[in-house]
Structure formats: structure tokens, C-alpha cells
Amino acid sequence: MAMRGIRGATTVEDDAPEQIWSATRELGREMLARNALNTEDIGAIIFSATADLKSAFPATGMRQIPGMEFVPLFDAQQLYVEKSLPRTIRILMLAETSLSQKEISHVYLRRAAALRPDLI
Prior knowledge:
By secondary structure, the protein is an alpha/beta fold. The protein is built from 2 helices and 5 strands. The chain is globular, with a radius of gyration of 14 Å.
């Protein structure tokens, strides 16, 4: 078993709390499923959101998944880069797994799929 970083990103249509929370839960669940993880495997999760998302913390949505109440979660604002994808939520999940770096499944949903077509 090794600690691995798993990346993910998704987008929302509007800066609305329920959209942010729902999209974050969807992304988090998909990251767990594709990598055969459960919440006990997670060491910590770092979230970032673009500056145009101001109405809610993505971590609040993830906290609603059973078992996530014990996982350290941290929100940050994504670095602004001109012409970058708007209304984007990113996740860096640190997890104990027997998967190799090459076997890790990084997850990019919705319009965020354009960020890393090489990983899709």
C-alpha cells in the first residue's frame, strides 16, 4: 500500500450552493469508485474552486458523503489564469491504495474533461 494522489475536476453551470455541493459529491464518489476506495482509505482531500464560485465551499458537499465526516478536507481558491475554464472545482485526493501511479484513474467530468484529455 502506498499514499497516492488522485486528481479530479468538474464544472457547474451557476454559482449556486446546491450545484457546487452536488457536483463535488458526484466527482468524489466517481473518484472513489474508479479507484476502488472507501472513505477509510482517504488521508485528506484538497479542493480548489475558481474565483467565480463564491457561494459555497466544495468540501461542504463532500462532507455529506457517509464516512467523510472524519476525513480532513481543505478548500482553497484556484490560481487565476487568464482564459481558464470558468466555474471549475478541482480535487486532489490523497489515498492509501495498492494501485500503482500508472493504474490510478483520474476523473474529469462535465466541461472539465477538456482539461486533461490525455487522462480520459
